[in-house]
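As the work plan foresaw, our protein records have gained a structure token line. A representative record is set out beneath this paragraph:
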Amino acid sequence: MIDDGYAVHQLIAASPPLDLNSIYSYYILSDHFRNTCAVAEHKGEVVGFLSAYRVPEQPDILFVWQVVVDKAMRGQRVAWRMLESVLRRFDTGQVSFVEATVNPSNIASRKLFEHLAKEQGTSIEERTYLEASAFGASEAHESEILLRVPLSNQNS
């Protein structure tokens, strides 16, 4: 999966308003975190990427950092299949919660985690993680809302 780093970077660059990180960071994510990240391909092209990691001090939490799906592939459950793929990599009980921060205007990401909660028979817990002001006056950035989904049966 390390070879996907450049293609992932290009996909995110073409998907504003996602925060674009360095190409190198996507190579690292694709290599060091390959067990908690997923790439979706269609006809040999990278059309989706989900980056996540287990929180070091709380390894039962899977934190989803970024989810991106190419415009042409949206509405085809690509993000859901990537999330399911990552969750299936863990034995029951290894991951008890999925967390992510989501801007209030990011309806697609919110729907992904609402779907996960519905599939798990649980509900989303949420709180403000970072206020918009934390990003500085020069940065036009919304607050980051932490969504937490308890997993009841992660391998479903």
In short: Strands lie at 38-42, 45-55, 58-69, 97-102, 125-130, 144-150. The chain has one domain: 2-150. The chain has a mean pLDDT of 92.
